[in-house]
Amino acid sequence: MKRYSTEMAIIKALKECKDGYISGEDLARKSSVSRAAIWKQVKNLRDKGYSIEAVPRRGYRLISSPDLLLPEEIATVLKTEFIGRRIIHRNITGSTNDLAKELANGGAEEGTVVVAEEQSHGKGRLNRSWVSPPGGIWLSVILRPQVPPSEASRFTLLAGVAAAKAIETLGIKPEIKWPNDILIGGKKVCGILLELSAQPDRVDCLIMGFGVNANVDMNKIPQESRERAITLASFLGKEIDRRQLVADLLLKLENEYRRLIAGEWDSVIADWLSRCNTLHENISLITLQGVIEGEFVGVDELGAIQIKLPRGDVKTFSAGDVTVKKRLT
Question: Hey, which of 67, 80, 111, 260 has its CA 20 to 30 A from 74?
Fold first, then answer.
């Protein structure tokens, strides 16, 4: 069951009213507060950037909303059951993953989402930094799956499937690069970072971080990364509705999470493989132990990459960075 704050309930009621006015009495009833409290809440919303008209004897009307990923905005289009019931928004934070970990350690419930307009110290895989300027989608989700730590790596592939399916709602066909980079035309549009807190026999929490180059200005991406990056806006030739994409991403994530917990891991892997851009390619896998070369033939039950070596045997690796050498014929 969804829970709405008073501000969320007010925005929801105003948006449902379309171009008309809603009386203070009706707004109070739908928001479960007194009429006297409505004015204070409306003032708070105006301070956040909402333009709300108030006309005596007619009521309130929403004129415009800020282009921010505010909980009030996401809640109006969110269709999940538990992911995103609580959303923490920051204009700028060091890392949404770090803030989510702090909240998780303090007992935040499963499904809590942290979203920021900017990150000053965004993080990527392999200890890389992730540039996170305005216009992107930088968010982290707290999950508390009842699985042993050995199975936590499955969530890396699961997150990639969810992100790809969310982007597909825009009419785009993205590809997944192992384990979970999302590409469009060979260029990275979304990165995912999974961080784990666990006991020897159980997972305490998973922090699943997503970084999506949505409406980011390409000039804000460092020159050394620009040739390998793309934004959704630059690909489509127009800006996207970030609020709707966040809602779609959280819904796809919840759906994939339910599939895994229900024992449908094989179908999640099948969806991942159907979107993988390096399957049966000749690749190099850069690991801490060195470079492995061979044919990428699939993933195992835990999502580790399987590589057929030149001598014919297949080896499995749980970490590394994939690059394509040349296409096999």
Answer: 260
Tell me which DSSP letter residue 108 carries: P
pLDDT per residue as tens digits for the range 59-72? 999 999 998 999 99
* 87-93 and 113-119 beta bridge pairing: parallel
Please give the DSSP secondary-structure letter assigned to residue 225.
H
Query: Contact 220/234 with Cβ under 8 angstroms?
Result: no
Structure tokens given for 231: 């934004």
**The two three-digit tokens of residue 114, written as one number:** 């942290």
Residue 105 is which amino acid? N
- Helix or strand holding residue 116 (H, E): strand 113-119
- In tens, the pLDDT along 166-192 reads 999 999 999 999 998 999 999 999 999
- CB neighbour list of residue 29: distance below 8 Å, 6 or more residues apart: none
pTM (2 d.p.): 0.88
Q: Rounded CA gap, 142 and 111, in Å?
A: 5
List of residues 6+ apart from 221 with CB closer than 8 A: 131, 133, 213, 229
